[in-house]
Amino acid sequence: MFQQMGKRIGVEATRRKANGFNEGPSQGNAAGSVNRESQAANRQRIQLHFDVILLLSVITLMVFGIVMVYSASYDFSNIWYGSQMSMFYRQMIWLVIGIAAAVFLTIYDYHLLKRYVVPMMIVTIVLLVLVLIVNEVLLGAARTLLQGSIQPSELAKLMVIIYLSVWLSAKREVLSSISFGLFPLAIILGVLGGLIMLQPDISAVATIFMLGGLMFFLAGGDLKQILLLMIVAVLIGWIIVQFNPTGSDRIEKYLLGLKDPTQGSYHVQRSLEAIIRGGWFGVGIGKSETKLNGLPVPPTDSIFAVVGEETGVLGASLLVILFSILLWRGLRISQQAPDELGAMLAGGLCIWIALEAFINMAVMVNLLPFAGNALPFISAGGSNLGVTLAAVGILLNISRLSVQKREEQGRQFNALVDLRWRDRRRRVSSTRRTARNEK
Length: 439
Known about the structure:
The radius of gyration is 30 Å and the shape is globular. It is an all-alpha fold and 439 residues long. It is 75% helix and 1% strand. The protein has 2 domains: 62-107 and 245-414, no CATH class; 119-243, no CATH class. The model is unreliable at 16-28, 40-46 and 425-439 (pLDDT under 50). The longest helix is centred in the last third of the chain and has 57 residues, at 382-438.
């Protein structure tokens, strides 16, 4: 009998050792708990607290843009600056500056922008005035400072979104009143648009007004006021077209191009020629011919045509997909934002970037009248690249704070459930012990 009992004890000890209980039941449970906590900590360490899909799409656009600027700029740069690498080096410098701004704004709480939004808007207006005073003419217009290095109208687009997000989120309760809603909005847009129109930069003015209407819509403005704003914008646009030779000529060429592409503007004709020559898969990076024999400003306004020629429909479609992903993730961030300010900022910024891209690409295939909008991340131009990366930094900041808020709410919920579970376990255990004692 004692031999049988010894065998049973040995089997039981072997089984418990295999299950991790060789040091006793309490110690085995503690070890398992530690292992689970360690695994949870490891998962927590590798989790990224912002929108990874947005970040990957932006990185892809930046890399693609640098390659295309290098390809599209060397001949143009040699003609204008006396060096084939001058524009590429400038773009790389602004890329580093833009990435630094994006990293800072990803960490910097976007709520603190409220403190500095008025001084930033004043600085923007001062820069727009300085453009008119300095009168640095480049390619037929005075739009830049420091020999083309800074274009304040690009900063104005970003500032319109930031300023109106802060102002409209604070005034949302009184937006239905014209004196508190539409009238102040018209003053803000009128000052910025008027200063930019004097440069002149018609496309930037149109973008400013579209962004103003968009932000008013996102803030939940009255539909009657939005309709009135649209009517006024169309009327102003018609007046500009009628009395501005550049605007009227672009509209006329656009309408002719819709009927017959060979009758469109010279710019659009050469762009379509480049895209047709590229076919489905392109002629190869660096092998474009139209950028060398007449395509206007290939590194900036016309870079999408160079993309179409060198990478084909495949490369052009990739750009469309990447900007669509950026818009999708930006709207998703806006939907999940922790507050109204974050929602308006995220919605306005992602729609602005996608709108600029759509206008640039649509113009190159004559779907819209010609406009001088840059292709974000792709076109050569430090100001546009810098402010676009700054916008991405704000988007990632909103995403980061949204994730943190959801995690805090999740921890609070788990703590509450755990507390209730522990209380219930104690009550049940106590009841069972009482029942056993009574027996």
